[in-house]
Design goal:
Elements lengths: L9 H28 L5 E4 L6 H9 L5 E6 L2 H11 L5 E5 L12 E7 L8 H11 E12 L6 H13 L17 H10 L2 E15 L2 H10 L3 H9 L6 H13 L4 E14 L1
Parallel strand pairs: 1-2, 1-4, 2-3, 4-5
Antiparallel strand pairs: 5-7, 6-7
Length: about 270
């Protein structure tokens, strides 16, 4: 994985929260927070919290006595999350590396991570850190995207970009959509010390008011924007228009709708 694929600046974070969260993240965030709250935890850790979409649902769903610590590597993401959760008295947000967590052993009942583990340079190390900070019997609940071709907006955008840049197609999408092999993930979880592992394939539908909104989210909410900028140089290609037309043709324009599919893991410590 390109190390730059995990770096999101403030402008990306703002686009992410405005366009990508409603398009692909919020429905899955509600699901993951609901799963976590079902364990009735008192202390929850969230890694790769982004702009706080899961965090907000945890804050709403958890028992009033529960506490949430939400972490991310990117200050721009956490700035937005902080602005949305500033009125919460039981949720705190901190900059932290999921591969080297600054918390004591056995500090949390549940660790959650929505669509973040794919960006970990060492996924096993991230799982081992989750296991380390969990109390005995604790749960690591996380989601990954299924294969790119099962997530149609992103698939269409990626194919269109490959046609525009045939000599050097952008490869960012290989990161979020490249870690979905259930047997491999299950094996790594077992290596990290988890026993019972539940797996759920979860289809949903991604909807945006317009195809241009979907392009704005997918193109400018991540390091993909930097890959595009490098390839365009001084070109006068209207990339947003070209991609909007492609998405509108395949998935409709106003609104645009396309299938999504994720895989959710709930891994339990003995």
């Amino acid at each position: 994985m390109n190390k730059n694929h995990s770096v999101f600046n403030a402008e990306m974070a703002a686009n992410y929260d405005q366009y990508l969260v409603p398009l692909i993240f919020d429905g899955y965030a509600q699901d993951l927070a609901g799963r976590a709250s079902g364990y009735r935890p008192k202390h929850v850790l969230e890694t790769a919290a982004g702009t706080g979409v899961v965090t907000g649902h945890l804050d709403r769903l958890l028992h009033e006595s529960a506490h949430v610590t939400a972490t991310d590597l990117n200050p721009g993401m956490l700035d937005i999350a902080t602005s949305k959760l500033q009125s919460s008295s039981r949720t705190k947000l901190e900059t932290a590396d999921a591969l080297n967590l600054p918390y004591d052993d056995q500090s949390f009942d549940v660790v959650v991570c929505q669509f973040g583990i794919m960006f970990f340079p060492d996924k096993l190390a991230g799982m081992q850190e989750a296991a380390r900070v969990l109390k005995p019997g604790g749960t690591f609940a996380f989601s990954v995207w299924d294969a790119l071709e099962k997530n149609k907006h992103a698939h269409t955008l990626t194919k269109t970009l490959a046609e525009i840049f045939p000599d050097s197609p952008p490869d960012f999408m290989n990161t979020p959509f490249g870690y979905y092999q259930v047997d491999e993930i299950r094996h790594e979880l077992q290596m990290a010390g988890f026993g019972k592992i539940n797996v759920c394939v979860l289809p949903k539908e991604g909807v945006a008011p317009t195809a241009q909104d979907a392009v704005q989210g997918m193109l400018y909410s991540s390091p993909l924007a930097l890959e595009i900028e490098e390839r365009l140089g001084t070109s006068n290609i209207d990339l947003t228009d070209t991609l909007t037309k492609a998405l509108a043709e395949h998935h409709g324009n106003s609104p645009t709708r396309a299938p999504l599919q994720a895989i959710v893991f709930e891994a339990h410590l003995d």
